[in-house]
């Protein structure tokens, strides 16, 4: 396992071929629990991961912009995300989690802070019922209608995409799918129900998909059929993110026990992506132009 210094040093090798303005479109910030308390019901308990640590990694990698996403452990408390955005300044945008208690005033305040969307996280909630998924989707869209420049981010599995597709194609706002909807990196479209639906939504221009480093770490990009498939479907709707600091419930740990982060070579994953997307225009689109368009940088 690489030390933090080794990870940062290896990041330097990934910067040479990067265009200016690269955006890491999926990160999380975790503060000390005394300052940023976790939701009582949660799937795991992470250690701290601060804006200072994230900035150090990004500076070493040559990443200039970031999108910070409120993780499931905070429920609808977006304070840690807003803290991270404030510390990062104008180069940061955020994705919040809300519920029916979130007021219009709250949304306006988050908009001024740089939040550009809301996240509906059904995967971590263990929800795979298409009817419930459609209901949550429609409720979120209703809240977004008054928020100019915002979009809906979904953490859902492939199995519900067929039920969601008609709603996505009619959505008044862009829809972003997290983490390739949990697809297997090594399997193709025909072997995974829902992948054809995802590609259709990408082609329509109404949906984006995030290819995150956890997905890329499972195989070489050039050998991952699905990376090529989403790029061919619509490279203008593909985003990249580290998913730093890679939170996960550790095996055998109770939800209230601290689970260490998974160690990934984020710089190596970015370098691999750059090397295996040889088209300079496409690479710039995924890393710079697509995020700029969606998040308003």
Task: Give the topology.
Elements: H1 4-11, E1 23-27, H2 51-61, E2 65-69, H3 79-88, E3 92-96, H4 104-113, E4 115-121, H5 130-144, E5 151-155, H6 161-169, E6 175-177, H7 195-204, E7 207-212, H8 213-216, H9 225-234, E8 238-241, H10 266-276, H11 280-295
Parallel strand pairs: 1-2, 2-3, 3-4, 4-5, 5-6, 6-7, 7-8
Helix pairs in contact: 1-2, 1-10, 5-6, 6-7, 7-9
Q: What name is given to the CATH topology?
A: TIM Barrel
DSSP helical segment count: 11
Task: Determine the mean pLDDT.
Answer: 90
Tally of strands: 8
How many domains in all? 1
Strand order of the largest sheet: 1-2-3-4-5-6-7-8
The radius of gyration over CA amounts to 18 Å
Mind telling me the CATH class? Alpha Beta
The major beta sheet can be summarized as: 8 strands, parallel
Q: What's the architecture in CATH terms?
A: Alpha-Beta Barrel
Helical proportion, percent range: 25-40%
**Cα-to-Cα separation, first versus last residue:** 35 Å
What is the overall silhouette? globular
CATH superfamily label: Metal-dependent hydrolases
- By secondary-structure content and strand pairing, the structural class works out as alpha/beta
Order of helices and strands: HEHEHEHEHEHEHEHHEHH
Strand content: 5-15%
Which consecutive residue ranges, at least 5 long each, have pLDDT under 50? none
């Amino acid at each position: 396992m690489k030390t933090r210094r080794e990870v940062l040093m290896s990041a330097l090798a990934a910067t040479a071929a990067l265009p200016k303005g690269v955006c890491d479109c999926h990160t999380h910030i975790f503060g000390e629990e005394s300052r940023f308390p976790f939701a009582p019901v949660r799937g795991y308990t992470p250690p701290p991961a601060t804006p200072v640590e994230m900035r150090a990694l990004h500076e070493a990698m040559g990443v200039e912009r970031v999108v910070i996403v409120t993780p499931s452990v905070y429920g609808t408390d977006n304070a840690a995300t807003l803290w991270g955005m404030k510390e990062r300044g104008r180069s940061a945008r955020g994705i919040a989690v809300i519920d029916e208690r979130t007021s219009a005033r709250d949304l306006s305040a988050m908009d001024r802070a740089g939040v550009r969307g809301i996240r509906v996280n059904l995967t971590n909630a263990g929800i795979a019922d298409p009817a419930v998924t459609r209901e949550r989707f429609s409720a979120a869209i209703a809240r977004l209608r008054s928020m100019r420049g915002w979009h809906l981010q979904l953490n859902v599995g492939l199995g519900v995409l067929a039920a969601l597709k008609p709603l996505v194609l009619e959505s008044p706002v862009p829809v972003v799918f997290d983490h390739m909807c949990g697809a297997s990196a090594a399997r193709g479209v025909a072997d995974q129900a829902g992948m054809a639906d995802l590609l259709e939504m990408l082609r329509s221009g109404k949906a984006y998909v995030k290819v995150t480093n956890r997905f890329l770490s499972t195989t070489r990009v050039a050998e991952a059929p699905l990376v090529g498939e989403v790029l061919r479907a619509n490279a203008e709707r593909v985003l990249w993110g580290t998913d730093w600091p890679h939170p996960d419930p550790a095996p055998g740990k109770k939800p209230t026990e601290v689970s260490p982060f998974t160690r990934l070579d984020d710089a190596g994953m970015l370098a691999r992506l750059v090397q295996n997307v040889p088209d300079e225009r496409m690479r710039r689109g995924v890393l710079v132009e697509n995020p700029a368009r969606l998040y308003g940088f």
